[in-house]
Design a protein that fits this description.
InterPro entries: ARM-type_fold, Neurochondrin
Pfam families: Neurochondrin
Mean pLDDT: 85
Organism: Capsicum baccatum (Peruvian pepper)
Low-confidence stretches: 1-20
Oligomer: single chain
Protein name: Neurochondrin
Largest sheet: none
Distance between the termini: 108 Å
Length: 661
């Protein structure tokens, strides 16, 4: 093809010489080009291609189709291979010309959808990807992106071929160096969007977590710096990558990055969306993205620097947390109102069900963000809290005020649900979770509403639950807090909530195996019941409540196979306090209690005395010491009413406290 190019240059030189004469110049027409393209010799076809690129309109699909039909596919393929240095004629000094010409033509041909979708174009994708990997700074890169985008959108096989050819790796590496806001970066982002949306997520995310993390980092920069429509494309691409159910490996790869520039860029971009007048759907998407970022780097991300590298404009470090909370509050109010209308007032159309599910899903994101903010502000004041340096009293007051108002709105939603007889629903359960998170830190907030709705909230079930469980778990931290005071204990007794807590505790400890989260809930429930029993003399307590009888049997059985001092002391202290409410005779006459339970209780309390006698409780274990004092005090009160238990305990060698006071 060297001779072909020389011939073309000679032809061009001859044409230039004749044009210097005064005679009028004749412009080549499309037909002239087509005649050359139909020639038998390669130099004729090459001359025709060189001419057609100088005057054709890339938006004229009809002309493009005529040129494509006139060019033999084999010739175009040979031209590309020679440009890449893979042909029989390696190209020599004209190799770059061949490469640029072939890729320019391929990109132009693919503007016609039927051509882009053809197998002939799909099969060239590996060659284009290879070219891009070897020529990252070449002027032909933009045409390569055009080609890949047009073929991938026209034919699903194009997307598969792009992925199999290592396209995602090339895109990830080049996104880092492409000019900000350029057409190339726009096409690169769209190609990634096509890959993650059209190919099996499980494969893409497991095979390319590092590449996707590089994409996130690069696109986050565009999200931060751009102020045009491409900013929104960046927003939706980032959300698509990070909200995927298989994105865990990408999260891990992002955590391993040596700096936090990407997360800072995310914060800048999200704040820009939330503080400006944009469509509500964009703000909601920004909240989705914020929730993903916090899941990766933690709640501390909500507070941090807000200036771009080299920028003179800087925003307060607390701007992000304030905007995320305010935007989440708005979304919560809107979604709760919409859900109430759809569930209780709107016509029961089939489309309503899908609409409800979408709104519940969106509500869940806003709820999650509020919970993360609650978790963050709960650390304020701690010695290790980085927020202390940037959060002033005014900001803290704004946060608390906003949370109080939103918790009140959520409680109103639950009251409405209660009035409509709704006891089951994931939205209701999620509402209880948010309320529980906040009241665990501020147990006196919205006190009247909480007291009114406590029994109802404890009876709420998720869609897949057969009986209330998670609602009780979510409220346990708050219940444990309020039972530190007599007033809180009275609320639990008057509402009957103590029965729900006892039932929950029994259900947990009767499981064969439970998680660390279950273990934490067990002790919260134990502490709540213990608080209640310790103040039994100050409240009107149902002495014969069957839930406590069942709890005696469950706790004594639970502790039998345990060696943990804290478990044995906790179980023994609760059982000792319950025994003080009744007598041995009354227990044995109860249908839920057997003589075997008496034996188990005897062994449990004997073990607790033995542990103290053997100095198994360390001096710094104040909680266990306090529990032992409860056990000894209660024992001295009821020992005469439980002769069998007393005999079993005091006849054992480990008992050293005959004169307990």
């Amino acid at each position: 093809m060297e001779e072909q190019a020389s011939s073309s240059e000679a032809s061009s030189s001859s044409s230039s010489s004749s044009s210097s004469q005064p005679q009028p110049q004749v412009q080549p027409s499309l037909d002239d080009c087509l005649n050359l393209l139909s020639g038998k010799r390669d130099e004729q076809r090459l001359a025709g291609l060189l001419l057609v690129t100088k005057f054709w309109n890339k938006d004229d699909n009809a002309s493009i189709r005529k040129v494509y039909d006139a060019v033999r596919p084999q010739f175009l393929h040979r031209l590309l291979l020679n440009g890449m240095g893979k042909g029989i004629d390696v190209g020599g000094s004209n190799r770059d010309v061949y490469l640029q010409l072939s890729i320019t033509l391929l990109s132009a041909f693919c503007r016609v959808p039927q051509i882009a979708a053809s197998e002939n174009m799909v099969t060239k994708i590996p060659l284009i990807v290879e070219t891009m990997s070897k020529e990252p700074g070449s002027p032909i890169i933009e045409d390569c992106y055009e080609y890949l985008f047009l073929v991938s959108t026209a034919n699903e096989e194009g997307v598969k071929t792009l992925y199999k050819s290592g396209g995602l790796n090339v895109l990830a590496s080049q996104l880092m160096i492409l000019p900000d806001g350029s057409h190339m970066i726009e096409l690169a982002m769209r190609l990634v969007q096509i890959i993650v949306s059209k190919l099996p997520s499980e494969s893409v995310y497991s095979e390319h977590p590092t590449d996707l993390s590089m994409v996130v980092s690069a696109v986050a920069k565009q999200f931060a710096v751009l102020q045009n429509s491409l900013k929104f494309e960046a927003l939706y691409l980032l959300s698509a990558i990070l909200s995927n159910r298989y994105s865990a490996p990408v999260y891990d790869a992002l955590r391993l990055m040596g700096n936090d520039v990407w997360s800072t860029n995310m914060r800048i971009g999200i704040v820009a969306i939330l503080q400006n007048r944009v469509a509500p759907s964009h703000k909601l998407q920004a909240l989705f993205l914020a929730e993903c970022v916090i899941s990766i780097v933690g709640e501390g991300w909500l507070i941090g620097e807000m200036n771009l590298t080299g920028s003179q404009v800087s925003l307060p470090a607390d701007r992000c947390i304030l905007l995320v909370l305010e935007s989440s509050r708005v979304e919560i109010a809107v979604f709760l109102n919409d859900l109430a209308y759809l569930k209780y007032e709107a016509f029961k159309a089939p489309s309503n069900k899908e609409n409800i599910l979408v709104k519940q899903r969106n509500l869940g994101v806003a709820f999650s963000l509020v919970e993360k903010i609650i978790k963050l502000i709960s650390s304020f004041g701690g010695e290790e809290s980085a927020a202390n340096a940037v959060i002033n009293e005014r900001t803290f007051t704004k946060l608390i005020s906003g949370l109080n108002e939103t918790i009140g709105v959520i409680l109103d939603y639950l009251r409405d649900a209660k009035e409509h007889g709704q006891m089951k629903g994931n939205d209701l359960l999620a509402a209880v979770r948010v309320i529980g998170s906040y009241l665990a830190e501020a147990p006196d907030s919205c006190k009247d509403k909480v007291t009114e709705l406590l029994a109802y909230m404890l009876s709420i079930e998720g869609e897949d639950e057969l009986s209330p469980f998670y609602s009780i778990r979510f409220l346990l931290p708050m219940l444990c807090q309020i039972t530190l005071k007599t007033g809180g204990c009275k609320i639990l007794v008057s509402s009957g909530a103590f029965r729900e807590v006892a039932g929950y505790l029994i259900a947990l400890i009767e499981q064969n195996n439970y998680t660390s989260e279950d273990n934490g809930s067990i002790f919260l429930a134990c502490d709540t019941i213990l608080n209640l029993l310790v103040k039994r003399g100050q409240i009107k307590f149902p002495l014969d409540d069957p839930s406590f009888i069942r709890l005696l049997a469950a706790l004594s059985h639970w502790a039998e196979g345990m060696d943990d001092v804290s478990i044995i002391m906790m179980a023994s202290s609760i059982c000792s306090l319950i025994l003080d409410l009744t007598s041995e005779e009354a227990l044995l006459n109860h249908p839920d209690f057997t003589s075997g339970n008496i034996s188990s209780l005897s062994k449990l309390i004997e073990r607790s005395f033995g542990m103290c006698g053997q100095d198994l409780i360390s001096d710094d274990a104040k909680a266990e010491v306090d529990l032992f004092q409860i056990i000894t005090s209660a024992y001295s009160s009821w020992a005469d009413r439980f002769p069998r238990i007393r005999q079993a305990i005091e006849s054992s060698g480990s008992f050293r406290f005959r004169h307990v006071s």
